[in-house]
Amino acid sequence: MKLRIVVTLKNGVLDPQGKAIQHALGSLGFDGVSDVRAGKIFELTVADGTSDEAIDEMCHKLLANTVIENYRVERI
Amino acid sequence: MKLRIVVTLKNGVLDPQGKAIQHALGSLGFDGVSDVRAGKIFELTVADGTSDEAIDEMCHKLLANTVIENYRVERI
User: Fold this and answer.
1) In A, which residues are within 8 Å of B40 by CB distance?
2) H or E segment at B58?
3) Which of A39, B27, B43, B72 is deepest in the core (most CB within 10 A)?
4) Do B36 and A45 lie within an 8 Å CB cutoff?
5) CA distance B22 to A5
6) Which portions of this protein are annotated as coiled-coil regions (chains A, B) (predicted)?
7) What is the ipTM of this complex?
């Protein structure tokens, strides 16, 4: 079973990587980029029948820092 | 206009970060994780009417290293 886990910073959390990318795009001549937020994506191959609880636990324990990050799980 | 740009390593390119995550999940007791690939996601807010060509150029020039990475653009 394939999973895609998308981890993004919560709203209100400063994102210096995103800001740096936004400025770099401006320097390269791309105007009109008003915001950039950077995040992470993990594509996992797990055993069929892995429970939603186990997947949530993986995210909480390792993949996401839930103090500052949101995550969402997509089955693919 | 909001865009989501997902950058992932091409098949066949070694992914040490993914391997480290896979091993860490195993150490934490999550069995059955047979593969992990790590990637990046960028959420951009761009001016309405930004052309597909401009978006592709942003990806080629800055956001993705197209020698080793694939990218895809989703409009949200």
Assistant:
1) 38-41
2) helix B52-58
3) A39
4) yes
5) 14
6) none
7) 0.89
Q: Point out the residue among A32, A40, A62 whose CB comes nearest to the CB of B46.
A: A32
Q: Which class for B39: exposed (0-12), middle (13-18), buried (19 or more C-beta within 10 A)?
A: buried
Question: CB B42 to CB A6 under 8 A?
Answer: no
Virtual CA dihedral for B13, A40, A42, B60, nearest 10 degrees?
-40
Per-residue tokens: B10? 């091409």
Q: Cα distance from A67 to chain B (closest Cα, Å)?
A: 19
Least CB–CB distance from A38: residue in B37, B40, B57: B40
Amino acid making up residue A16: P
Provide the residue count of chain B. Answer: 76
Closest CA to A7 of A34, A58, A42, A32: A42
